[in-house]
Design a protein that fits this description.
It is built from three helices and no strands. It is mostly helical and 111 residues long. The radius of gyration is 16 Å and the shape is elongated.
Length: 111
Amino acid sequence: MGGVGGGLGAKPPGKFVLEQGMGESDNILTKLQDLLVYLIPQLNKFPRDQKFVLGDRIEHKLLDVQEDCLRAYYSREKRGHLLEANLELEQQRQQRAVRLSQQQQPEQRQQ
């Protein structure tokens, strides 16, 4: 299972904040906020039939991740909140994969 950031070399979510300290946690919260500021207008560009189902789910899932990260930041027991955030990120990745496969289907039909 990948870490909060996913990808190669990512640290497990339970260790990340504990090892990095509060300064790095604040940076994670800032980056998550930046992601939300960028992504929400992008979700509004989804086709109408996907915007209100898939787009809303992605937006709410990322807001849930932000909430879990904030809870971890202010909690002594960070691991549970970070594991929940990691699960929500994985669910969001799966939803994004569905969206990308739907975008590719019309392209494949045209070929």
